[in-house]
Amino acid sequence: MRIPCPYCGDRSNDEFNVLGDADALMNRPSDPSLSAFDVYLHARANPAGHHRELWYHHGGCRRWLVVTRDTTSHAVLDVALASKFQGQP
Amino acid sequence: MTASNTATVNGQPFRQSRGGHLERSRPLSFTFDGKNYSGFGGDTLASALMANGVKLLARSFKYHRPHGLLSAGSEEPNALVELRTDARREPNTRATTVELFEGLVATSQNRWPSLEFDVMAVNGLAAPLLGAGFYYKTFMWPAAFWEKLYEPLIRRAAGLGRAANAGDPDRYEKAFAHCDVLIIGSGPAGLMSALAVARRGARVILAEEDFALGGRLLCERQEINGQPAADWVHSIESELAALPNVTIMRRTTVFGVYDGGTYGALQRVNDHVASVPEHQPRQRAWRIIAKRSILAAGAIERPLVFGNNDRPGVMLAGAARTYLNRFAAMPGQKVVIFTAGDDGWRTARDAAAAGLHVEAIVDRRPDVAPDVTASSGSEARVILGGRIMNVSASHGVRGVGILDRNGQRTTISCDAVFMSGGWSPTVNLTCHLGGKPQWNEAIAAFVPGAKPAQMIVAGAANGTFALGQCLRAGAESGGAVASDLGLAGGPIECPKADDEPVAVTPLWYVKESTGLAFVDFQNDVTAKDVGLAAREGYRSVELLKRYTTLGMATDQGKTANVNGLAMLAASRNLDIAAVGTTVYRPPFVPVAIGALAGHHRGKDFRPTRRTPAHDWAVEQCGVMRESGAWLRAGWFPKGDEDWLAATSREVEATRNGVGVCDVSTLGKIDIQGSDAATFLDRVYCNTFSTLPVGRARYGLMLREDGMVMDDGTTSRLGQEHFLMTTTTANAGPVMQHLEFCHQCLWPDLDVQMVSVSEQWAQFSIAGPRAQNVVSRLVDRQHDVSLSAFAYLGAREVSLAGGCPARLFRISYSGELAYELAVPARYGDAAARAIMMAGEAFSITPYGTEALSVMRIEKGHVAGNELNGTTTARDLGLARMMSTKKDYIGRVMAGRPAFLAEDRWDLVGIKPVDRTARIRAGAHFIGIGEKPATERDRGYVTSVAYSPTVGHWIGLGLLNAGRKAIGSRMRAVDLLRDSDIEVEICDPVFVDPKGVRLHG
User: Which partner from B39, B246, B340, B706 sits 20 to 30 angstroms from B933, CA to CA?
Assistant: First the structure.
């Protein structure tokens, strides 16, 4: 698998770590309740199709990326810096 | 026995005196089962053995039936041999793909005592018992017999070659390559597509698994542009080789297709020489990243399924042409051809041209086009609408029993049978990303279905079999890819070649067969097995495959699958399209693990990390041990001290005088920015924004789920500048976590961070005399007196008249202690300077063992306790969790289960019998209780012999441990047969009030 890193260009996936669902992980609750954090930590959709995932370019620029991937074909559809999404739904 | 129609050539009785693509000026000698033979450059082991008249090459997997060559390529299921000897012994090598070299040593396998006389052939008599699913049925009961009796028996009876029993002495490499277009295969379609894209400037890699380009063009007597096809191949090869944008990779099999245009390829760099030249790899595993690929992998001929069709001398008709035309080797003298299509007639023609006696051509079709029958060029008896029922043979073919269209039976004597069931496109690589091949009734074969993105398939691999069409398909595919890549230029001229007749009417199974009729030659799967599986209800192809093991051998059923599927379909009265096919997974051919590992084996599995003062530690007689990827001194023995004596001496010297330890491996992260303090408040559970400049503080970091992640000391070097330390093991994960917190959670914070772990060498100088050493070490203008530089101070100093350094008054040992950091390039010099400054105080180097003893004596937690299952509260660090701010892990650390009374708490333990030794990993069991999982109360995490208190001590995690302090438990280690009564105590064994820290 190849990921086109916005800084480093097209790179092999073994330069990256994957963390999981970007939309879940990047929305840390402001509500300090156990139920909100339970959902934050554990509730994950498992879509067949487009999925936004967090990948870390440890072997390159150390940026966290939001990689939009099709889970049925493994096609990488979009890559963007995670930092630019903050505050967006 | 000498072939009648040819003189013996160079001692090879079955070699034609002329023809073939051989280097006759380069004779090569080799041995098979200890006998000497000779061949020529350009031979494979298979063709050379054939030229020498060796027909029996192997014994089959299950029944130990004698096997010869079936094919001439990488699809070979039969002729598996052991290659080379001793540590280089390589089992299950296909003789058809082994390029002959001088001194080659090959041995047959899976036979005892010899290939000619194999006692296990008695398995063949037991064939009725060893049919489909015999594993599942025969050895069901009693279960206890399985491991001791059944399995070893089966393993001995059925098997393949023996692996080498010594380490592989050769080297392997991994490499990357990038190109615009990867072309897989160099037959007519591959060469034409390579030419079409290369002439338009694309960067091309042409991968060919053979040692010569040309594919089937080397094996056929066809013409292109009026010249022999092989000559045309050479002219194209010359043009391609001269182009700077083309890389030709011979002996390279593309074995897998992966996501994003990534292809795995194995290059056999030095498999064709007796020993690998120095500094060269034997094989190289490539990852090729290509914008487009053109699969021109050709097709594989199918056997026909009839009685005893596995006997040596029965081979594929196309393979017979390969041996005749490419290798000038004679696969037989008197041959019968059995075909389901036009292809068999070509073999008849070529065999006759080579001087073989074609006794009969048996075509299953009652009507065959006259131009086809006329083309055979032989005077052979022609039996249309006939079929071969069986082969009579012992080790070699003696004759065939034929049934003609009128039901008449005839016997014809012969010494070889060439069979052609039609050709199956080599669609394997199109399946690797999930594509399913589709049945094409017109050519009676599976053709590529959904293909990987950016791959196109050309020529025989796409079901286009005739030569003229293959050349055109290659040119068109190459042109289309070049245009798609936006390259200027137009179509190339296609050379002229005839389209040979390729009609076929498949015959999946000769029902009138007598004797075992094999479908899968490598796994000994017969027509009866397939029928039995269908009758027993294994109706899907996936179940058929697993029940009968059809297609599950090392050849992945390349010659077997389609026949098996068709027979299943017939038994269910379904179309083949409705039954479908199993799909192929990588690798296309077996790939040695060594090639995939490359250099990453043994000590090179991962890089060895050495600290800047490594050489100093070695000079001090440090015993270097692995600590993660790092090498660190475990202890520094003097004289004949063992590890325990040396460690105890180092602890005592440090606690009573002064010691020095290299702690460079700790993770160090430089954090700067106007929001750096805010950031640290959010990632640590305790507060750092209140830390004054020039001070250090112990920090505890939680995971979001409330467990402890890591700990370390973080110092404030400036208002907006912090230096964090992490444990050695977590340096990478903590860096990644901090970057996540910043970039994904709080990108609005003005903070930057970078790992400086390798930029600084760091030494702990600990003990009552530590201050004396440090004051001699640092330059005079820095006041490092105890009052001016108090506990938890952090400041920049200089050494040796200007060498920059950082000094921290922090302690892991519990003694008055400093950590001194210098830029890595001064690490070695700093270690020596510390030793010199400490000489007057008998400074003692100490290793990781003494470090560990002293931290256990102080009850400090380390990796054994920070194991991902412990909370701050479990470790007695609840007071560190701030209640005044939000931080990672705060909410979940408060979940009810984490506050339960019966959590496992950190405790100290002492043996009641003070001479006893406690074992880490022992479990806590109540006094008088029987050790059992349900009575497990926790376990011992760390132990040490403490010279300070004079006996073994330990730390552990004990159920409701804090309340149990003062009581007694047992530490039970059933694995090491140890059961010791222990006192539960506070985890701090030495200086619980922390007086020593302050000097």
Answer: B706
8 Å CB contact of B740 and A12: no
Chain B residue numbers touching A56 (CB-CB < 8 A): 736, 739-740
For residues B51-64, average pLDDT: 90
d(CA B441, CA B420): 17
B28-47 pLDDT per residue, tens: 999 999 999 999 999 999 99
Judged by a CB distance cut-off of 8 A, whether residue A83 touches chain B is yes
The string of pLDDT tens digits covering residues A59-82 is 999 999 999 999 998 999 999 999
Q: Determine what percent of chain B is predicted with pLDDT higher than 90.
A: 83
Return the pLDDT at A89.
40
* Of B242, B247, B233, B232, the residue nearest B202 (C-alpha): B247
With beta carbons less than 8 A apart as the criterion, state whether B587 and B256 touch.
Answer: yes
pLDDT band at B581 (very low <50, low <70, confident <90, very high): confident
End-to-end CA distance of chain B: 98
Of B742, B745, B892, the CB nearest to A26: B745
Asked whether the beta carbons of residue A86 and residue B258 sit closer than 8 angstroms, the reply is no
H or E element that contains B695: strand B695-702
Cβ–Cβ under 8 Å, residues B131 and B57: no
Integer angstrom CA distances of residue B782 from A83, B761, B798, B820, B838: 43, 20, 8, 14, 18
- Mark yes or no for CB contact B262/A86 under 8 Å: no
Least CB–CB distance from B895: residue in A34, A36, A64: A34
A2 and B259: CB-CB below 8 Å? yes
What does the pLDDT read at residue B922? 97
Distance CA B629, CA B616 (A): 19
CA–CA gap between residue B104 and residue B90 (Å, rounded): 12
Predicted complex: ipTM over 0.90: yes
Nearest chain A Cα distance for residue B436, angstroms: 14
Interface touch A28/B745, C-beta < 8 Å? yes
Is A32 an 8 Å CB contact of chain B? yes
Interface test with A, best of B454, B671, B743 (most A CBs within 10 A): B743
Exposed e or buried b per residue across B474-508, where buried means at least 16 C-beta atoms within 10 angstroms of its C-beta: bbbbbbbbbbebebeeeebebbebeebbbbbebbb
CA-based max dimension of chain B = 115
And the tokens for B841? Answer: 């105080």
| B354-376: pLDDT as tens digits | 999 999 999 999 999 999 998 87
**A64 closest CB neighbour out of B704, B744, B895:** B744
Three-state DSSP at B804 gives: strand
Task: Look at phi and psi of residue B942 and say left if phi exceeds 0, alpha if psi is from -120 to 50, else beta.
Answer: beta
Chain B environment of A33 (Cβ under 8 Å): 891
Within 8 A of B746 by CB-CB distance, chain A residues are 86
* HSE, side-chain direction, 13 A CA sphere, residue B480: 14
> Secondary structure of B944-966 in the HEC alphabet?
EEECCCCEEEEEEEEECHHHHCC
Of B739, B890, B892, the CB nearest to A62: B739
Other C-beta atoms closer than 10 Å to the C-beta of A19 total 16
Nearest by CB: B739 against A32, A37, A64 = A64
C-alpha triplet B288, B290, B296: angle, nearest 5°: 90
| pLDDT tens track for B475-494 | 999 999 999 999 999 999 99
Mean pLDDT taken over chain B: 93
Q: What is the pLDDT of residues B651-669, one digit of tens each?
A: 999 999 999 999 999 999 9
Predicted confidence (pLDDT) at residue B10 exceeds the cutoff of 90: no
CB contact under 8 A, B704 and A41: yes
> CA distances (Å), B369 to each of B500, B503, B803, B907, in order?
12, 9, 94, 92
Mutate one of B263, B891, B892, B895 to test the A interface: name it (highest A CB count within 10 A).
B891
